[in-house]
């Protein structure tokens, strides 16, 4: 599971244009509401953000063609929420060899990875299918 899906389009979108497109076409009742913002304080740029789990969300953004890419695209990707990032930072604190702290730390790592590759990945795939459909209906697929 890559945690990232790419949809090739015939146009690029600014974050605001992508948000407005989704406002007009996205089925919020079946595929949840979304906001425009940054997943954490440490994230640069704006993304359309959709809920996935308490630790992860799905970010949606557009990339224009350029030096490393020959196509315009809309990308959906699993990202950590602020709570998920805080948990990841807490896991990085050295346990000093204490066996109990080490066990708790390993359990948390496994749970977060299972969260990312399980429910968050399922949300990503559902959102990608819906995004591909609405982009196609609007005539934006390449």
Can you walk me through this structure?
By secondary structure, the protein is an alpha+beta fold. The chain has one domain (4-137). Helix content is 44%, strand content 22%. Strands 1-5-4-3-2 form a five-stranded antiparallel β-sheet. A hairpin with an 8-residue loop joins strand 4 (56-63) and strand 5 (72-80). Helix 3 packs antiparallel against helix 4 and helix 4 (99-117) runs parallel beside helix 5 (119-137). The two termini are 25 Å apart. Residues 89-94 and 102-109 have low confidence and may be disordered.
Q: Please indicate the percent range of residues in DSSP E strands (runs of 2 or more).
A: 15-25%
Number of helices: 5
User: Mean pLDDT, as a whole number?
Assistant: 82
Terminal residue distance: 25 Å
Helix content: 40-55%
Rounded to the nearest angstrom, the radius of gyration is: 17 Å
Query: How many domains, in number, for the residues?
Result: 1
The spatial strand order of the largest sheet comes to 1-5-4-3-2
Oligomer: single chain
Could you say which overall geometry the principal axes of the C-alpha atoms support?
A: globular
Strand runs, count: 5
What class, by secondary structure content?
Answer: alpha+beta
Q: List low-pLDDT spans.
A: 89-94, 102-109
Helix and strand pattern:
EHHEEEEHHH
Largest sheet: number of strands, sense, barrel closure: 5 strands, antiparallel
